[in-house]
Amino acid sequence: MIKLENITKIYQMGKVEVPALKGITLSIEEGELVAIIGASGSGKSTLMNIIGFLDKPTSGSYFLDGSDVSKLNDNKLAEMRNKKIGFVFQTYNLLPRASAFANVELPIIYGGGGQKRRRTLEALERVGLAARATHKPTELSGGEQQRVAIARALVNNPSLILADEPTGNLDSVATAEIIAIFRQLNKDGITVVMVTHEMDIAQQTQRIIRLLDGQIVSDEKVT
Asked: Which of 70, 77, 187, 211 is deepest in the core (most CB within 10 A)?
């Protein structure tokens, strides 16, 4: 599904070049549940942003489902992102004055398509929040807000979910609930790539890719 070949990313800070990724070569197969782990500054979030088309590499090649991403214009990238990829972030990124239903419905509104109500309720049902559809984020716990964010990521039936530190703001109980949801979604056939700095979370996936200073230093299956 994902194939990266010698990906580099260099940020220009005035006259200084800061390398964030230094020649990443990586393949992720359809149906995998993968953790990308590393300390702050290791490049893991930069790598995730490139995989999700939120940033562009300085050099190298990226293929998603066989499509050469570098050859796609911004409109095509946006279309592929909306159809194929669901995003989950540490800070939830919910609209504070909108209900859970309205937050989940947003990708359908932006991307077009019918049956908005059915699809939105089905996504909320998958994360166990159909009964909380009318509640606003301020009326929900942190774990519930993250489940709304996951439902929003699911509403367009993506084949890939990218989760950047999805449990970073949660207590241990909510963390366990969120990881259980990702594991179930993976069993349902969705490829899940998760960035984390916590080894105990990474060990609940199928494969751990460790980054250090912008390079892959290990890539191991979880037994």
From this structure: 211
In whole angstroms, give the CA distance from residue 66 to residue 57: 18
Mean predicted lDDT score pLDDT of the chain = 94
Q: Report in angstroms the alpha-carbon separations of 53 from 34, 76, 99, 176, 201.
A: 18, 11, 28, 29, 25
The ranges assigned to domains in the chain are 31-57+71-221
Q: Which pair of tokens denotes residue 114? A: 């019918």
DSSP reduced 3-state for 10:
strand
Closest CA to 111 of 90, 85, 147, 137: 85
SS3 9: strand
CATH topology of domain 31-57+71-221: Rossmann fold (3.40.50)
3-state helix, strand, coil in the chain (%, to 5): 40, 30, 30
pLDDT digits (tens, 9 = 90+) for 1-11: 999 999 999 99
Bridge pairing between strands 191-196 and 33-37: parallel
Backbone angles phi, psi at 133, to 5 degrees: -60, -30
**Rounded Cα distance, 98 and 134, in Å:** 9
